[in-house]
Sequence to fold (387 residues):
Amino acid sequence: MRQVQIKRLARFVPLLLPLVTMLGASISVGCLLSGAGPAIGSISLGLCGITSPDDLLIAAYLEANADLLEQPAGSDDTPVTFTVQPGETAGAIATRLQEAGLISDAELFRRYAQYHGLDAGIEVGEFTLRQTMTIPEIARALQDGRNPEQVVTIQEGLRLEQVAVVVANQTSIPQDEFLALTTSGWRNAGLAFDFLGNLPHTATLEGFLFPETYRLPEDADAGALLTRMLETFDARVTLDMRAAAAERGLDIYEVVTLASIVEREAVVESERPLIAGVFHNRLESGWFLGADPTVQYGLDDPGNWWPVLTLSDLESDSPYNTYRNLGLPPGPICSPGLASIQATIYPTDSDYFFFLADCIKGDGSHLFAVTQEEHNRNYRMCGGQIP
Fold:
């Protein structure tokens, strides 16, 4: 501790010399210097704007504590809601920040905000802060109060109609309005996303309503939410990922279609790439995908979107019946999360062509098999009857 104090004192003393010089001079520093002043750590002194000895003293104090300015109060990254009340002073706010464990030095925060003119710009309202934020980061965050908003969380694996219900339940956006925009209206909505060029002319936006928690303005409409969803998809599915998919001969629509099947099949996170690899093996070998979720999707049963299948369902003539139609189904069957998209682009290479739910573990994991005979044994072990 003593070494740290000596180090800070050594940095502080040289800064006093310009102050003494300035106090003894009758000329204006601002008239002698042009442009911004020297940067000390993350602090820009901006000497041309300094008009009082107090400013220099604060600058010296901040320089002496520059290390603390960039040191978070803790390592807990849990979001903390911090409320600034009307009429609350910067000093009172700094004290409460320290009491909440968000900063370690209230005086240092107050002086930093004062020097940079941020104390007068602190907004009234709720803010989301974290222990892992530095004093400059917290000071800047308090400049932007949270306006009234709507929050909607879209889970992975929901088909478009289910997403519309969630949106209507969690926001003021009507279900019919969202459905109309995402099924056909999007084509005339002026959406400027390159990946939409890969969609068939008659396609809906099934699969591209990226699962995420979205914070929207209080008056947001369906168009605002859809734009946010597509922006998120565009950012998360990177150009490198799209290039890797292209090397496998898949465009983005095909990737999302296959990833949506992986999303509905996988329960255990670590199995996603393995399941994707099984489907790649089947496609490359000219086999039927034989995926139950595509059959469920094709039944199109409102309110019972993912029913338990019967043998007669597997004989349906739906184009989504991958037991009877080769290749990928006509389009995605749900909104896959990033993990399923990545698994589809970067699958695990294996010799497996089959999998079924592990009836022994019962934890959502699967039994994988290379041959039909091995798969049949697994099937019989789990009580299935081979025709």
